[in-house]
Structures are given as structure tokens and as C-alpha cells.
């Protein structure tokens, strides 16, 4: 384990960071408020960086929103779930062990995740990547503490949805076995609880050429999905408290699908999509 931590520290400490000011994010988080979302009030930027973490239950959409922000801000999106799936599809030594863990709906161990993440950071450093948005890591306080030792995290975004919506989303997930793209056939319309608004999400249907090639992930059964959520709830609260105590946690209740949620997320982060697109094209 010590060797992995040293490797993680070595690869992370030399990452050159893209210039991006988090000062505006800090001011926005202090001044705005969303229902049921206590916002961080003490985010102090450490220079001009993008070093963000996305938290949230399985199926909440961490990958979707982290990937969109990654493209907008010009920093890599590093998803530990993708790292695990890449290893599962390889002939590596961990492949069989990971298959058993994932198919039972259990969390992958710290040692395995840190091993995969260390290799990913080392590869990114060699390619000259700058900054990052982490998705699905850390999942435990132990991981969060190790991450704090090796790099500074500016902001932690915790995406939230009711459990009923999460289950429906997970059961609706489909993957095209040919092109590898992700889709969702679920049409969700769930009444809000405790005064919260109704949540509606239209399906993300595949194009005609993918329809006959859709497959369901082996771990997307109702029993396994609910077990994964139970494990996540047990593990996530301490991680949320860890970052909340540092004034870095932004809890964001998703109001619906991408069309409703994306602009609101950009608003609370004080990001102008058109401004960044124009800047990137210049």
C-alpha cells in the first residue's frame, strides 16, 4: 500500500494545472441557495486551478455532468468506474477478481482503486494532462485522507436524487455492444417528497443502428442496485462530512434530467457555457 501511495504522490505532485479561477465559484456558493442544499461557505481558492471531485450514488449521473464540465473547462474527466470497467475488459491479473466483486454489487477495495488511479494519473502526466475532475473517488474517508496528502481539492460536488429515481435510472441503463455508448430507456416521473418538486426525466434513446445491439450491465438488477445504494449510503456520509468540515462540499439536488439540471448546475458554479466555448475557439 505504501508503494502505491508513493506512486500516487509522485504522479499527482507534478501535474501542471490549467488556469481557472475558483474565486468566482466561491462567491457564488456564498450568495446563492437551492432548496434542501446547504452550500459551502468557506471555499478559499488556492491559485487558479480546477481540481474537483464529483460524489453521488450509483446512477445519479456523476459521469454525465463531470464529463460535460471536463469538456467545457478543458481538464480530464477521470472516472474510477471507467477504470474498473477497462480493467474488467482486459486480460490483466485483476480482471477475474474485479468481476466477482462487481457482479455481487460490492465496493472495490481501496488498494485496487488506488492502484488503478495511480496508473491513470501516471499515464496522464506522461501525456501532459492538466488538472482533473475525479468521478467516483474518494468513496471512503480513508481514500479522502490519502487524496488530501497528495493533492489539493478545490471543490466537491455531491449530486443527489431520491432513491426511487436512482433505482429506475439504473434499471433503464443500456450499453451498445458495438459502439460502447450509454443510453437509458427509462421514462421517469416521480412525485416529490417533503415539499420537493416532481422529478421527470425523459429516456435517452439510442439511434436506430444501436437498438438491436443494446445490452444491460450484469450488475444492473434491482437486487444488486439496491444493495449498491445501501453500501453507498453507509460509506458516503463520513466522506460528505469530511469535505463539509473543510467548507468544500456543494450538495446539489438534481431537479430533473440534463435539460433541467445542466443550466442550474452551471449557474451555481458561476460558469458561462458560451463564454468558455468562445474562449476555447479563440
Automatic annotation (TrEMBL):
GO terms for molecular function: AMP kinase activity; ATP binding. PROSITE patterns: ADENYLATE_KINASE (PS00113). InterPro entries: Adenyl_kin_sub, Adenylat/UMP-CMP_kin, Adenylat_kinase_CS, P-loop_NTPase. Pfam families: ADK. Gene3D superfamilies: P-loop containing nucleotide triphosphate hydrolases. GO terms for biological process: amino acid biosynthetic process; root development; shoot system development. Its EC number is 2.7.4.3. This is adenylate kinase.
Amino acid at each position: 500500500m505504501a508503494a502505491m501511495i508513493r506512486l500516487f504522490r509522485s504522479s499527482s505532485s507534478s501535474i501542471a494545472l490549467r488556469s481557472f479561477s475558483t474565486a468566482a465559484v466561491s462567491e457564488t456558493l456564498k450568495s446563492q441557495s437551492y432548496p434542501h442544499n446547504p452550500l459551502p461557505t468557506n471555499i478559499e481558492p488556492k491559485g487558479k486551478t480546477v481540481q474537483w471531485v464529483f460524489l453521488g450514488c450509483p446512477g445519479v449521473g456523476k459521469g454525465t455532468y463531470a464529463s460535460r464540465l471536463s469538456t467545457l473547462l478543458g481538464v480530464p474527466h477521470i472516472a474510477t468506474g471507467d477504470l474498473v470497467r477497462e480493467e474488467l475488459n482486459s486480460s490483466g491479473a485483476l480482471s477475474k477478481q474485479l468481476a466477482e466483486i462487481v457482479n455481487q454489487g460490492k465496493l472495490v477495495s481501496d488498494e485496487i482503486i488506488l492502484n488503478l488511479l495511480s496508473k491513470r494519473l501516471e499515464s496522464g502526466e506522461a501525456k501532459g494532462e492538466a488538472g482533473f475532475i475525479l468521478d467516483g473517488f474518494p468513496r471512503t474517508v480513508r481514500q479522502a485522507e490519502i487524496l488530501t496528502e497528495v493533492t489539493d481539492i478545490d471543490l466537491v460536488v455531491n449530486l443527489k436524487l431520491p432513491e426511487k429515481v436512482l433505482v429506475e435510472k439504473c434499471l433503464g441503463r443500456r450499453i451498445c455492444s458495438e459502439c460502447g455508448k450509454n443510453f437509458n430507456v427509462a421514462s421517469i416521473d416521480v412525485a416529490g417528497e417533503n415539499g420537493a418538486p416532481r422529478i421527470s426525466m425523459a429516456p435517452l434513446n439510442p439511434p436506430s443502428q444501436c437498438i438491436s445491439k443494446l445490452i444491460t450491465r450484469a450488475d444492473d438488477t434491482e437486487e444488486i442496485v439496491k444493495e449498491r445504494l445501501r453500501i453507498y449510503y453507509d460509506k458516503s456520509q463520513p466522506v460528505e462530512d469530511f469535505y463539509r468540515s473543510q467548507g468544500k462540499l456543494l450538495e446539489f439536488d438534481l431537479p430533473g434530467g440534463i435539460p433541467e439540471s445542466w443550466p442550474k448546475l452551471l449557474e451555481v458554479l458561476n460558469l458561462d457555457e458560451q463564454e468558455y466555448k468562445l474562449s476555447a475557439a479563440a
